[in-house]
Design a protein that fits this description.
Length: 334
C-alpha cells in the first residue's frame, strides 16, 4: 500500500493576531483564513483582505446598464491611492482597481500597480479592452489577473488575445441578466458562444456577475433575472460542462445557494456577501463604504482612521448585522 502524499500549501504572505491567521499565495491567489488560540474561523476581519478601490471617476463608454451611472468625477489622486496602500498593505492581500471606467486608462495606472507590488499587495482589474495600449499590457503582467468585460465586440476579442499572448491570467466578466440568460447557460454547457473568437484553451475563467439595478441600471429593471432563470442558472453553474473554469460574484452566489447545495469542495470556494466582513470599497473621492453597489447614504468619509471606520461606523456594522443573521442575503436588496 503506497503511503499517502502529503500536500504542502505554500504561502508568501502571513497576517496573524489573537483571533485569526490569514495566509496568501500571491502567485496563485490562494487565501487561507483560520481561527487561532482555540477560536473559530472569524466572521469578519479587522481590515479587508480584498479592497475594491475605485481609481476611475471618468468614463467615455456610457454603457446603458452601468451601475456607477454616467456622472463624471475626477479620478483618484495617486497620493490618495498610495496612502490607502500604506495603511492596509500588511493585512490586505488583493486590491481590485475599478471605479467609473477602465482602470488601465488612469494616468498613473503603472505607478499604482507598481506601488501595490512594492508593498506585497496583488493588484487585479477589469477593463472593456477599448483602445488597449501595449504599455498597459506590459504593466498588466504585474497583476494577479485581468478580466475583460464581454461586449461581444472586436475590441473584446482583441484584448483577450493580446492579454493571453502576453502570458497574463485572463478572465471574462459576463453579466448575468434576463437578456443574457441563454448565452450564460450555453457557455456553461460547453457551447462555444463566441464561435472560435476566444481561445478557450488559454482562457482562465468566465466570471458571471449578477445584473445590478443600480446607477443607470435603475431604469432597466426588466433585465433582472426571473426566479426560473435564477433556478436554472444555479443548477448549471454548479455542474459546468465547459473547458474553462467558472466563477461568480458573491451577489449571484447568494441566489445560487437558495436553490442548490454545493459539494464540500465547491462550498470551500463559494463566498456569499463579504461586504464589511472581508471586503470594502473606496470611491475616487476617498469615501469608504461596504460595497461598490451601496447607495450614497451608506458612504463614510475617509477623513479619519480607516480601521476605525471599518470596525465602528454604522454602515459597516449594519452590513455585518444583516449578514450575521443570514449569510446568503444582500443588505441592500440585490
Amino acid at each position: 500500500m503506497k503511503p499517502k502524499k502529503k500536500v504542502v500549501l505554500k504561502f508568501d504572505k502571513r497576517f496573524v493576531n489573537d483571533d485569526y491567521e490569514l495566509l496568501f499565495n500571491s502567485s496563485t491567489g490562494l487565501e487561507l483564513l483560520q481561527g487561532v488560540n482555540g477560536k473559530d474561523d472569524p466572521f469578519s476581519l479587522c481590515l479587508p483582505s480584498l479592497l475594491d478601490i475605485g481609481v476611475m471617476g471618468t468614463c467615455k463608454n456610457r454603457c446603458q446598464f452601468c451601475y456607477q451611472g454616467h456622472e463624471q468625477r475626477p479620478n483618484m489622486k495617486l497620493s490618495d491611492f498610495m496612502s490607502i496602500i500604506d495603511v492596509v498593505h500588511q493585512h490586505t492581500n488583493q486590491v481590485a482597481l475599478g471605479g467609473h471606467g477602465d482602470p488601465n486608462k488612469h494616468p498613473q495606472f503603472a505607478e499604482m500597480v507598481e506601488y501595490c507590488r512594492k508593498h506585497n499587495v496583488t493588484p487585479n482589474y477589469t477593463t472593456s479592452g477599448i483602445e488597449l495600449a501595449d504599455d498597459e499590457i506590459e504593466i498588466s503582467k504585474m497583476c494577479g489577473a485581468v478580466a475583460v468585460s464581454d461586449y461581444e465586440k472586436n475590441f473584446t476579442y482583441d484584448a483577450l488575445k493580446r492579454f493571453m499572448d502576453a502570458g497574463i491570467k485572463t478572465n471574462i466578466h459576463q453579466i448575468f441578466d434576463a437578456k443574457t440568460f441563454h448565452k450564460c447557460t450555453s457557455l456553461i454547457n460547453g457551447i462555444d458562444y463566441w464561435s472560435g473568437r476566444v481561445d478557450i484553451d488559454r482562457l482562465n475563467a468566465v466570471i458571471f456577475l449578477l445584473f445590478k439595478p443600480q446607477g443607470s441600471g435603475k431604469k432597466m429593471r426588466f433585465l433582472i433575472p426571473t426566479e426560473t432563470q435564477l433556478e436554472i442558472m444555479s443548477d448549471r453553474i454548479l455542474s459546468p460542462k465547459c473547458k474553462f473554469k467558472v466563477g461568480m460574484d458573491s451577489c449571484l452566489a447568494n441566489h445560487v445557494l437558495k436553490y442548490q447545495t454545493p459539494s464540500k469542495l465547491q462550498a470551500m470556494s463559494i463566498d456569499t456577501c463579504e461586504a464589511a466582513r472581508m471586503s470594502g470599497y473606496i470611491t475616487p473621492d476617498m469615501k469608504f463604504k461596504p460595497c461598490s453597489f451601496a447607495e450614497c447614504s451608506t458612504e463614510v468619509n475617509l477623513n479619519g482612521n480607516l480601521s476605525e471606520i471599518w470596525n465602528e461606523s454604522e454602515p459597516f456594522k449594519f452590513f455585518r448585522d444583516v449578514l450575521q443573521q443570514k449569510s446568503n442575503t444582500c443588505p441592500i436588496g440585490f
